[in-house]
Amino acid sequence: MAEIEDKLYLARISxxxxxxxxxxxxxxxLILLKNGNINEEEKNLFFNSLKTLINFRRESWRxxxxxxxxxxxxxxxxxxxxxxxxxxxxxxxxxxxxxxxxLIDNKLLKDNLSDELKVMYYKIKGDYIRYIIxxxxxxKEEELNILIEKAEENYKIGLNICESLSNLSTTKVSLILNxxxxxxxxxxxxxxxxxxxxxxxxxxxxxxxxxxxxxxLLKDLNKMLNVLKENIGKWAETIVPEKVENIASDVQQxxxxxxxx
Length: 261
Description:
Layout: H1 2-16, H2 20-33, H3 40-74, H4 79-108, H5 115-135, H6 141-161, H7 170-187, H8 190-211, H9 219-238, H10 241-253
Helix pairs in contact: 1-2, 2-3, 3-4, 4-5, 5-6, 5-7, 6-7, 7-8, 7-9, 8-9, 8-10
């Protein structure tokens, strides 16, 4: 018990000190000591530290990836160093992503969890695999297809479980938001991305009206619904006219209200 308390204390002060690497180290040790039976605070420390470490590197990778394209075009003699730096960042991202997935699979994802937690874990796994897809060269078709299948499998498992959750559940809306983006940007399934996002948005808004929720008090949900709304409008405008006509027909058949502009 004392060792567990010490690890949690060290994770807390590392987090407060802005040291995500150290936070992750101590909280990972704590997860192993507790065999994955962590509380809300410990879960937040784990995933927030991972998020910080991954997102910082993803932003850096995108910047360097753009620079690499520029250096290739200019036939720069610095291209090998730029590529090396990009590859280093790619490996670091994969290391953190794989660490997260491994701990979810082996320690955190248990049969006795609430549906809310299970959905959250499957969403995170889908997101993490999507990050690796972003890093993978388009000419590695077989590898990409395997990753896409794995990401979709996790999103779909989460989607099936979240049928039991309220249409106003932030976990449910967050999963569907990310899955719809995955369908649109990665799978290029524009029609189903649009329909899924629109259906989720309309159901949430209807429940808000029926239950007289004050959306201003639901900060996280409000943000997600605004992103869904923006995506619906943007996707309707960017899909080719023939597909827009098909979508409009499907929306009418499914009794889904048109997306708001």
